[in-house]
Structures are given as structure tokens and as C-alpha cells.
Amino acid sequence: MKTRIRTLLANGASGRECMVAGWVRSVRASREVAFVTLNDGSDMAGLQVVADQGLANFDSVCRLGTGAALRVHGTLVASPAAGQQWELHATIVEIIGEADDAYPLQKKRHTFEYLRTIAHLRPRTNTLGAVFRLRSRLAQAVHRFFAERDFLYAHTPIITASDCEGAGELFRVTTLDAVAPPLAAGQPDFEQDFFGQKTGLTVSGQLEGELLALAFSDIYTFGPTFRAENSNTPRHAAEFWMIEPEMAFADLADDAELAEEFIRYLCRFALEECADDMAFFDKQIEKGLLERIRQVAEADFVRMDYGDAIERLQRSGTAFSYPVEWGLDLQTEHERYLSEQVVGGPVFILNYPKEIKAFYMRQNSDGRTVAAMDLLVPKVGEIIGGSQREERLDRLTTRMAEMGISQEPLWWYLDSRRWGSCPHAGFGLGFERLVMYLTGMDNIRDVIPFPRTPRHAEF
RNA sequence: UCCCCAGUAGCUCAGUCGGUAGAGCAGGUGGCUGUUAACCACCUUGUCCGUGGUUCGAGUCCGCGCUGGGGAGCCA
Q: At A248, is the secondary structure helix, strand, or coil?
């Protein structure tokens, strides 16, 4: 029976007979003894396998290449040398899958750019292994957080016909012939398409999430999201995962409170339950990472009105590249200044001018702002965007008319304001941005196993 | 999409003033009784991103293209 290396090391007992299986990271051979570092993905360190001339295939073991797959039977013993607590004295080494000298991963540091070209193999490296382990644990922690608060996990559609969420360009979903589609008035006739109308991949589950919140009170979505934007930055991907909670009978203050608890919970989770991998990130990826995350985990998040934020920026005397003026959106440089220089920690900016925000955000009584919030954190800037939603039908339709948004395709959304409408609020968090924030990784392409970005859909 | 930078051995990089390609690692062979990205000795490896131009001569200078990276915009 195979034992996972992480489990084996956690329950180490001298003299224990066991069998492990994994991939060779390194072979150090001399005439009479060879050391094989074996990794099965369960942890960072792997297991040192000691092979000696007593093995039937000792010569073959000495010639093993990095990357080969092995099954090893042996005895776990306390290691006499520094570097590891335990080691496995092999009695049988089965070579399951060879790896010759063309194997692209070497026993050395590679650039992330190079590793992206071998995305099919990079999960076997220390860094990407740690990132994808953390990603998995973190996804489970997200579900745990909401389950502890009795939120319903909602699956919103991936194929959608609502073209007007205002959250970016849609990927078109169609089965029409791309070369010669049926035409109506010179345009492709989507009435003859699979769904009988224009459809695309979802850019947000929020609108459907609101409908579910108006039945289950508290819900969240956590699923893939698609944006056909030609964004070429380290923070954007065409396919990413988004977390979107929505709470009925809740206002903007409740929304911010949930976001604060959520971020703090995930920071603590990473520090406490992923300590080995986090220590690796702190040492190898970003010096001071643990301290940064610890501060966020313990901080009280500041709340600041958009108007105050503008004043603070104007009074700062700092020369920004982009103008600072009431009515203009905050740029990345402003967001980072507020979080890093003004506050020195996470800060919510609340109540933005209605002109720069989406139609569904609740209009404040001042007539010029909406109940929107962004959570800004050091190093990244905006990590969460949310709002209280406009629950008053007349205000909502008036605003849609002002912004030129057609009501007809959103009849179902408007119905939710017709019967049993109530104040509700929610936010959106890009999962990859969260993983980047917690690992210190600088590029979104390195926190998704197989990233999709403009011109890149390989693997 | 806009601005800036880069592309040389399998990987990471150096290459001076334009004069004909070099280092570490990886790989190979041999050595080594406990190594820690093992170590020691020797050896192998090139479409200098592509294309057009300038020049007696281009890795080096110029144009165009492709690819990658950084910044911005859009945003999560």
C-alpha cells in the first residue's frame, strides 16, 4: 500500500516498512551509495531515498535522470546526516517511467518565462508545486468560510445571453458556420443559432447571484469567468475564477464587514495551515511576505469615503501621472498610494461618483454617489470590488435609461425588484489575484496551471 | 490597444570600437564510503529569433515582422 510522503514524514517512526511512489528531483551517486530525492507532490521537501549496492538494480538507480517515476519499498530510519529528519533505506526500487536527458526541467532555477513554455511539466517544480498546492487548499478554505456562515453555494450559468452586465467583452458562443453564417438583413442571424439568440461566456455571475440571494438570503458563487479583453498585463487572464457573495437584507456596511472577515480568514488560513509552502514563498518569492500577510490578518481595515480619498490625494503634494479630481476614477497609482502611504494597510474606499460605476449600484441620497466599495491592499491596489445594489425599481429603470441600457433583455432582473425586493449587497474577488497576493507571485500566468491570455490557449 | 526593454548552446547569461562565438549549469566518460541544486578531472553542444538593408566584413548598425517581459488602459 502506497504512503504519501507528507503523511509518512508527519507520522515518521523508525523501522517502519513502507512504500512510496513519486518523481526523481535529484540523484547523488557515488561508488557504493546513492541518494535519490523523491517528490510525490504532497509536500515541498520530498523524501531522501538511500540506495546501496545491495539493490539488484543499483547501477540503473545511479544512472536515473531527473524526472523519472519510481516506486520504492524500504524502511524509514532517522537520518544520520543534516538536511532531513528521516530517510528511506530502499530494499526495492522499481523504475516505473524513465526520463532521459531531453527532460526540460533541470536541477537548477529556471525563469518563470521558460516554465510557461512547458506548462505541462512545471507543476513538478518547487515553486509551481507550492503555488498549486496553496491554490487547492485556498479554494477549499473559501468554501469552508461560507459554509461556516450558512451561505448557499450557487452555480450560475457559464453560457449566458445577458450581454449588458457592463463588465467587459464577451466571448461569443455559437454553432453557426463561421465562414457562411445564415444572414438576416446582411448580419449573422443568431435566431438560427443553437440557443436561438446571441450568447457568450459569462463575465460575472452577479445578476443571477442576486436572484438567488432573494430566495436563500446569503449565497456565493465560485466559478470560472471569461473576459475577451485584449489585456496584456501580469494581472489579467481571459479565463479566471471569481468568488461573488451576495447577501439579502444587507447594506454597504454589512458588505464591507463580510469582505474584511473573508480576507482576514484566508490570510490566517494560509499562515496556519499552509505554513511550509508559505515559508517557502517568504524565502524564495517575496522577502517579508509572512509579515505582510500577518499584518493584514490582524489589521482593522480602514473605511474612507471616496471624497475624503480624493482630498487626501490632493493634499499629499505627490505628483501623480493621472489627475486627481472629484468625479474621476482612481488609478492604480492612487490606489496604492492610499493603501501604502496614507493608511499603511487595507482600506475600503466607499461611495464613488455614480458616473464611473455600474447601473445596478444603489444611488445614495446625495444624488451624486452610489453605494460602491473597493478594497485596496498594499502592493496590489484593488483586490475586491462590491456594492449595495439598487433595490428600488423606479430608481433602477431611471438609471438604466440614463445610461442607455435596454430593459427588455433584463426583464427577469427587473422582476426581482417588482416582487419582494429588499436591500442587498455583494462583492467580487478574483481568485487568482488572491493567490498572487498570498504567495507573492507577480504574474497571474504562474498561479493558474494552464493560463489563457490573448493569443495563448495551449495545453 | 499604446509606450519602453529584450531575443546568443538544452537552461541562465557574457560578448568591448563592426573583424568571424564563450562561461556557468545541464548532458557524456571516468573517479569518489553519507550526499543535500553533492564534489573532482576530462569531453560534447550554435539557423547568434526571422527577414530586408548598410558595409570589404554584421551577434554587434538601420527598417519591418514575430516572440517574450515591464509599464499604462480596461478590470477581477
A: strand
